[in-house]
Every structure is written in C-alpha cells, then in structure tokens.
Amino acid sequence: MSQLPNCPKCGSEYTYEDGSLYVCPECAHEWSKDAVEVEEEGLIVKDANGTVLSDGDSVTVIKDLKVKGSSSGIKVGTKIKGIRLVDGNDGHNIDCKIPGVGAIKLKQEFVKKS
User: Fold this and answer.
1) Residue 34 host element (H or E)
2) Cα separation of 20 and 73, whole Å?
3) How many domains, in total, are found in the chain?
4) Which protein family is named in the record (predicted)?
5) Which of 25, 51, 59, 74 can bridge 111 by disulfide, Cβ–Cβ 3.0-4.6 Å?
6) Residue 41 resides in a domain
7) pLDDT tier, 1 (very low <50, low <70, confident <90, very high otherwise)
C-alpha cells in the first residue's frame, strides 16, 4: 500500500482518498492529487502561451494593465527583465521592477516569454 501524504493544513497523518481528492478527517481540508505533485516538483509558472518561466527570464506584457493608485498603467509590449517567481496565493506569481512604475507583482496570464 502506498503512503498517503499528510494534510498540508494541519499535518494530520490520517488522510484518505476520495475520488481524485485527498481528505483530512480532522480539519476537513480537501486538496487534489495534482496539487501534491506540484508541491513535490516545486513552483511551476507558465506564461500565456504555456511556456514554463524561470527566475531571471525576460517577459513581455500582452495586455494593457491598470495599476491601482496610479494614473498611468502598463502598456502592451512593455519588456520586463529579470523576473522573480514567487508563490502568490492570489495568482500574482511574478515579482518584477518596471521602469517608470516600480516594483510590482503580475499574473502569469498577462505576460509571454521573450
């Protein structure tokens, strides 16, 4: 019998399988089997075209983006050098500095690798 992973929320060892999910009976946390594989492999971030990004890559913005608290935004075609990948819980997985805007976090679906 294969060893089931401990619950990522509470650390309980009493997890069980329910279809394509793992379930923790102690805290009622559910997570997919795919999420466990991603955790083992590390953070994988893909751009709008499905290309895997890594730290230090250069990317290009593919859509005009509004910036909160600023009258100007980020225009299509803006090139960003030296990105850092972070685990953003709200989908903002790219940390970078944009000339004229400053340090900002971006969502991966708005950039393509250049």
Assistant:
1) helix 33-41
2) 41
3) 2
4) Belongs to the YjdM family.
5) 59
6) no
7) very low
